[in-house]
Amino acid sequence: MSAVRSKICGITRIEDALVAAEAGADAIGLVFYAKSPRAVSVQQARAIIAALPPFVTTVGLFVNASRCDLNEILDAVPLDLLQFHGDETPADCAGYHRPYIKALRVKPGDDIAAQAAQYSQASGILLDTYVAGVPGGTGESFDWSLVPHALSKPIILAGGLCAENVRAAIQQVRPYAVDVSGGVEASKGIKDAEKIRAFIREVGCA
Q1: 9, 26, 92, 179: which is the annotated catalytic residue?
Q2: The model's pTM
């Protein structure tokens, strides 16, 4: 089995981005959703990306953003990958000249495979916890047994992950990558360096 990739999401500070990169994170996530406590401005995002070393993928997270707003951000911020975390249709996700991943919020009874199959152009499918009215970043995990064994796209596992449970999550789900935000924070939007390092270490040991 190939190494599981890791993404540290909700980065708001240059120092947190650098800790993530130095710890071995494959990607960082920048949240462009004003209602999130982890939201960044265009200026913040540009400064964070400019400080990163090479080979760290920068991911922009969007929730039901208008095409106009999203294009304005893409004109100003050199993002590598888009993450759609709202109710976007496959058509809403296309046409930005960037690869994208689509987040699905998992709850019992969902046909995850059928939902994922709709996003045939996605680079991967991110599975997060369903909490009514909250698009993500809840800090709650879901029942990993709900994840289908054979999805047509690489799986990025999210939702309530931390250093204490990520190894078990990887061993059960066998995802392509894992995504953490609240599980490596000192407070919302402010990362804890040792929690990041511990999380990356556990991913490497899984």
Answers
A1: 9
A2: 0.95
